[in-house]
Amino acid sequence: IMSAARDEVLTVTKQMLETREIALDKEDCNATTGECTLISKPVIFIKGIQTKSQLEHYSEVPAADVRNWVSGRYVLRIQISPASPKTSQVAVYTRFEGRTTDGATGSQWVPLTSNGEFEDKVLRCIQDRVLGGDCKDIFR
């Protein structure tokens, strides 16, 4: 729950995404419930030798998995609902995928389960921006 109206939270969230060059794929606001959903386009956040460690930092990579991970990407889904005229409920969901180069089919994107670390950072950034901050280090 954040101490700001839904429209204010929606505005700062869109500014945060724009500042970080995270393009929106879909924006939908329900006129009946007031809930707004923002869905980003896939964002490649890591390539190269550190891919596996970054994927392990933000998602659950099976310990027995010996794949050759070459890149990682995510899609953000942010839901903003009015809780009262001056407060909003905000939820963040992330779908992580890792790209592999092995297997009979060649390279492919493999879905991974988020551990909640990234979502927590995004929520903290939105809260910081609502309070007038800029949360510059959030996606590092």
Which structural class do the helices and strands define? alpha+beta
Radius of gyration: 17 Å
Could you describe the largest sheet, including whether it forms a barrel?
7 strands, antiparallel
Shape field: elongated
What is the element string, with H for helices and E for strands?
HEEEHEEEEH
How far is the N terminus from the C terminus?
25 Å
Strand content of the residues, in percent?
A: 35-45%
Average of per-residue pLDDT values: 90
Contiguous runs where pLDDT drops below 50 for at least 5 residues: none
Number of strands: 7
Can you count the helices?
A: 3
Could you estimate the helical fraction of the residues in percent?
A: 25-40%
List the helices and strands and how they pair.
Blueprint: H1 6-19, E1 24-29, E2 36-40, E3 43-47, H2 51-58, E4 59-60, E5 69-84, E6 87-100, E7 108-114, H3 117-130
Antiparallel strand pairs: 1-2, 2-5, 3-5, 4-7, 5-6, 6-7
Helix pairs in contact: 1-3
In short:
The chain is an alpha+beta fold. It has 3 helices and 7 strands, in the order αβββαββββα. A hairpin with a 2-residue loop joins strand 5 and strand 6.
List keywords for this structure.
single chain, 140 residues, alpha+beta, elongated
